[in-house]
Write a structure and sequence with these properties.
This protein is of the alpha/beta class. It folds into two domains: 203 residues, Aldolase class I (TIM Barrel, Alpha-Beta Barrel), CATH 3.20.20; 51 residues, no CATH class. The strands form two sheets. It has an eight-stranded parallel beta barrel with strand order 1-2-4-5-6-7-8-14. A four-stranded antiparallel beta sheet has the order 9-12-11-10, covered by helices on one side. Helix 4 links the parallel strand 7 and strand 8. Helix 3 runs parallel beside helix 4. The chain is globular.
Length: 275
């Protein structure tokens, strides 16, 4: 049975009774509302010993960070976690005992790439939001032993840049920035995006969350991820997903202006076999 994981964006999120949690590690993750030091994880593991517990280090790592990155991974490896989510394949060189889950934002999108990394010590994959239901299920059918994670609610990540785009913008126009979160709109279009700046750089997210509550039973994944990052008053949404209450689909869509993203879109551009 597919497990429901909640991405922790505040301490209050631990009060939600899901199957498990995903926790961001300070200085090594992006797009988390709250991050935790490694020293906090052991106590969280002890407190929630009946839950699945994953930690996320989902950002790329610079060369000068590699030694610190390795020390963090080695400490986490001895805490009885269900998995360590990484965004940098450098983690694959450290011979970790804990299952390594690869989260490369937009790159885990084909059965062949999943098969390649599965043959190189990767135990699971956070799939990109850019692929369809058929493509997700094809990946699972051809990689039955790999654990697949799929976001089913929350703001989709669109792009990340190491440049400080918000700070540079406000500096150019000689204005003070009051908040790292801005909303940008495309000229001539009724399209809005969240743009947030942090220690790593700038991240752009869709302003329309994905909501896949209506098709949970058709997605061949081992873990579903609920993510309330930048959203408010979503406790009832967590309950809806835990109960797989598809009757609340329209209510969720209306409240958050949500949609199903690419899940039922036709893939138009595709690399040909052997090209």
């Amino acid at each position: 049975m597919t497990k429901m994981l909640l991405k922790i964006n505040s301490d209050d999120d631990f009060s939600y009774d899901t199957d498990g949690y995903i926790i961001g590690i300070s200085n090594f993750c992006i797009c988390f509302g709250k991050t935790y030091e490694v020293k906090n994880i052991k106590e969280i593991r002890r407190k929630f010993n009946d839950k699945k517990l994953f930690v996320s280090l989902n950002k790329p790592v610079y060369n000068f960070e590699l030694e610190a990155y390795k020390r963090v991974l080695e400490k986490l490896d001895n805490m009885g976690l269900d998995g360590i989510i990484v965004g940098d394949v450098a983690a694959l060189t450290y011979d970790l005992k804990t299952p390594v889950i690869l989260d490369q934002l937009h790159l885990n999108n084909s059965s062949l790439s999943v098969k390649h990394y599965a043959n190189n010590s990767v135990g699971g994959f956070v799939l990109t939001n850019d692929i369809t239901l058929d493509e997700i299920n094809k990946i699972k059918r051809e990689n039955k032993k790999s654990l697949l994670f799929k976001q089913v609610f929350g703001l989709p990540h669109l792009s990340t840049s190491v440049r400080n785009l918000i700070s540079n913008y406000f500096e150019h126009f000689n204005k003070n920035i009051n908040d790292n979160l801005c909303i940008i709109s495309e000229d001539g279009k009724n399209e809005q995006y969240y743009i947030i700046e942090d220690y790593f750089g700038t991240h752009i997210l869709s302003k329309n969350p994905i909501n896949l509550i209506g098709i949970l039973d058709f997605i061949m994944a081992d873990y579903f991820i609920i993510d309330g990052y930048l959203l408010n008053e979503y406790n009832w949404v967590v309950d809806a997903f835990m109960n797989k209450d598809a009757s609340l689909k329209n209510k969720i869509d209306t409240k958050f202006n949500a949609n199903e993203g690419f899940i039922n879109q036709k893939t138009i551009y595709k690399v040909k076999h052997n090209d």
